[in-house]
Amino acid sequence: ITENRILELLVENPASRNSKIKDVMEKPFPVVPLNATAADISKNISKQNTAVITKTNTGEWSIITEFDLIEAMAE
Predict the structure, then answer these.
(1) Distance of CA 21 to the CA centre of its chain
(2) How far apart are CA 25 and CA 38, in angstroms?
């Protein structure tokens, strides 16, 4: 669930703060390989889908947001 979705829910219906996450979740972020290029990642990021996830070499999940992509391309 994204920050935008949480804000949207609270503005539309303040009582939604008592909702279970599973009832208000959005679709999952796409999974990309750890060696994905910026071009690969950008294909999966859109206005409706603002991040992707990848599994690190240590087996932990990492989120790559649209801001991360912009920051990486600006360097």
Answers:
(1) 15
(2) 27
Q: For residue 75, what pLDDT is reported?
A: 75
Pairing label, strands 51-55, 61-65: antiparallel
Q: What is the mean pLDDT of each run of 10 residues along the chain (75 residues)?
A: 87 91 89 92 88 94 91 83
What is the rounded CA–CA span in Å between residue 69 and residue 39? 10
Q: pTM here?
A: 0.72
How would you write 38-66 as a 3-class SS string? HHHHHHHCCCCCCEEEEECCCCCEEEEEH
Q: For residue 61, report the phi and psi dihedrals to the nearest 5 degrees.
A: -85, 140
Rounded CA-CA distance 73/10 in Å is: 34
